[in-house]
DNA sequence: GTTAGCACTCACTAACAACGAGTGCTAAAA
DNA sequence: TTTTAGCACTCGTTGTTAGTGAGTGCTAAC
């Protein structure tokens, strides 16, 4: 167990390093008002903290830098949430001023505000479309060979795919299929569609319009498979301000990562849990994120659906501030999205 | 007018600089097989070319670098198109192998291939949706207060917006509006919708369902205004490989630019014209593009619609190669998209 | 008109010293 | 026993200097 003094020293070092980005030395700490021991004492404590794995040195005679374990301890035990300022509240709430704004646009705007407020990169994972329920299904023929299939969900989300019609598909048959599908699928969540298509509905379609069930079901698989939760970014290039990202290769990996939706989604795994989650450096199990931390919070979008909101920043990001902001904002978003329904 | 020898010297310098990225000196040129004069002669020619504004020096005793004017002259008069290799043709054509691929996915894939082939960043501007014609219009109610409006175009593109219903809008009235709109709008290009909405249709709706025309027309404005041609990128981070982009600020400006669709579209202004267009550095009139060149070509997507395909690279990009590839690829795309209709 | 020769420029590199922020350790003070 | 002052040592950073080499412009000879 750490002594009180060790806790204090660790806290001061992490805080100091977060705000300065420079390794912090014993003299610097000793000069602080709330520290009453000499630099030599602190040097001893620092050596102990280093032995315990909480601190690191960049070279033999430099100041200390928190290790990942150090950050982890800091966020788990030493993090005192910051108070949010009125000004910050104002700029967050300004998003919701325009009542007519669509949900999607509002989420986009939230991402921007969040990245402006933090100077880091923000990510918002829209509510998982899989749980949305089918409101209407429709096929619109474009020509004698092509048509577009459309699914409208209860959330107002519209999915569509262009497909090539089988040669002998007549208008009447299309209508019949559409009717069957609407009868059977309206009210069901998107995720269940492929399942249902393979069972009862395949039979029904076979009975009424012939053996085209294969074709229809493959169409549906394509529709529901592709649609993952949408990802929105704010301040994608903010990380270029951080001195730790002057390395072009790191920047490149990170930027490339952001265009790969599935990989980004794995970063949110633990985001399902309640409250704010913090993942530090290698805890993300992703090479590109080795020097980054991600802080996530989930919000409620009604109907048992939830999205996630996150900040990606350097490991030495301002955890206090970001945690507070995310907590506040996810609460606001939840309230807004559940009331709207 | 430039002498033959000056032309040759300029050509060699530009070619050399493009491939090496280093300022090129008189001795280097003299050593080339196809150059038969001494370095001193070349020095004199270079001094003249510099006076004429085609070359620049980075400092008093360094080799020469092409100026923007030099590049311009090079692409206008000295550019001999390269032959395209079978291997390149093969990788381009591999995109079209999968007949079932949707147009959008194919365009996305084209952008990727193009950036891989060139190691620069590729941009594809999808066909302008404004010219697509309305195929079907529809309103799907979601709840007592909200509904989603859907427009399907003849190309299979689907536009949709969620909107809040006026309080006294009944299902019957909605159907009536939908009918009127379908009667009057099917077959008309999207771009004409706002115009028509203000004229005849406003009257019709007023006659049949009361004074809701304002509401409907504002809805339509929102639909057709927002939808610009879609922009697809390939190799967004490729530019980080170029030594001229080790400057974080340039990278940042460029990456930020890429997320601003309207600004990117201005880069394609001249792309309407036939054939391949080259814009060098400040010719783009855009700070972020000061050190970049963009080469564009347009392709035909049938029905008098066209898209653009472009490569963004450093000013010293391999113009020969890129011009050839773009020319070839735009032709291929045109053939493919016009046949498909 | 062309070219050899030469003095000059200037970025780049290596070597070196001086500096300073930091450490670990020891011994004295509390 | 704990804390602290003192000191030797480490190592990154900065500045200086000199040497190198790729390049130029100019002049005079070919």
UniProtKB/TrEMBL annotation, chains A, B:
Q: Name one GO molecular function term.
A: DNA binding
BP GO annotations: negative regulation of DNA-templated transcription
* Domain Heat-inducible transcription repressor HrcA C-terminal, residue spans: 104-323
Q: Which Gene3D superfamilies match?
A: 3.30.450.40, Heat-inducible transcription repressor hrca homolog, domain 3, Winged helix-like DNA-binding domain superfamily/Winged helix DNA-binding domain
In terms of Pfam families, this protein maps to:
HrcA, WHD_HrcA
- Looking at the record, the residues that make up the Winged helix-turn-helix transcription repressor HrcA DNA-binding domain are 1-71
Q: Which UniProt keywords apply?
A: Repressor, Stress response, Transcription, Transcription regulation
- What InterPro entries has UniProt attached to this entry? GAF-like_dom_sf, HrcA, HrcA_C, WH-like_DNA-bd_sf, WH_DNA-bd_sf, WHTH_HrcA_DNA-bd, WHTH_transcript_rep_HrcA_IDD
Function (record text) = Negative regulator of class I heat shock genes (grpE-dnaK-dnaJ and groELS operons). Prevents heat-shock induction of these operons.
Q: What PANTHER family does the annotation carry?
A: HEAT-INDUCIBLE TRANSCRIPTION REPRESSOR HRCA
Tell me the protein family, please: Belongs to the HrcA family.
Record's protein name: Heat-inducible transcription repressor HrcA
Species source reads Candidatus Kurthia intestinigallinarum
Q: What is the lineage of its organism?
A: Bacteria, Bacillati, Bacillota, Bacilli, Bacillales
């Amino acid at each position: 167990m750490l002594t009180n003094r060790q806790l204090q020293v660790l806290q001061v070092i992490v805080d100091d390093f977060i705000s300065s980005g420079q390794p912090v030395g014993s003299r610097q700490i000793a000069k602080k008002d709330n520290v009453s021991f000499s630099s030599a004492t602190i040097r001893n404590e620092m050596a102990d903290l280093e032995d315990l794995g909480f601190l690191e040195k960049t070279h033999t005679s430099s100041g200390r830098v928190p290790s990942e374990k150090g950050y982890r301890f800091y966020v788990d035990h030493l993090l005192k949430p910051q108070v949010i300022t009125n000004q910050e509240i104002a700029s967050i709430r300004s998003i919701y001023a325009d009542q007519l704004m669509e949900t999607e646009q509002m989420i986009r705007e939230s991402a921007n505000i969040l990245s402006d407020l933090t100077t880091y990169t923000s990510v918002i994972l829209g509510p998982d479309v899989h749980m949305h329920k089918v409101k209407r299904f429709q096929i619109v023929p474009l020509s004698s060979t092509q048509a577009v299939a459309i699914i409208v969900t209860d959330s107002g989300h519209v999915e569509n795919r262009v497909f090539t019609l089988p040669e002998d598909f007549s208008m009447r048959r299309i209508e019949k299929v559409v009717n069957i599908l609407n009868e059977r699928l309206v009210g069901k969540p998107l995720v269940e569609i492929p399942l249902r298509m393979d069972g009862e509905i395949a039979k029904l379609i076979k009975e009424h319009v012939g053996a085209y069930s294969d074709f229809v079901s493959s169409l549906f698989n394509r529709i529901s498979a592709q649609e993952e939760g949408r990802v929105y970014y704010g301040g994608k290039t903010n990380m270029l301000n951080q001195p730790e990202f002057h390395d072009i290769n790191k920047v490149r990996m990170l930027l490339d990562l952001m265009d790969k939706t599935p990989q980004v989604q794995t970063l949110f795994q633990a985001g399902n849990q309640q409250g704010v989650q913090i993942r530090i450096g290698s805890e993300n199990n992703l090479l590109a994120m080795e020097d980054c931390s991600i802080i996530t919070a989930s919000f409620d979008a009604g109907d048992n659906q939830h999205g996630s909101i996150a900040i990606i920043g350097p490991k030495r990001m301002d955890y206090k501030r970001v945690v507070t902001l995310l907590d506040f904002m996810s609460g606001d978003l939840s309230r807004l999205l559940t009331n709207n329904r």
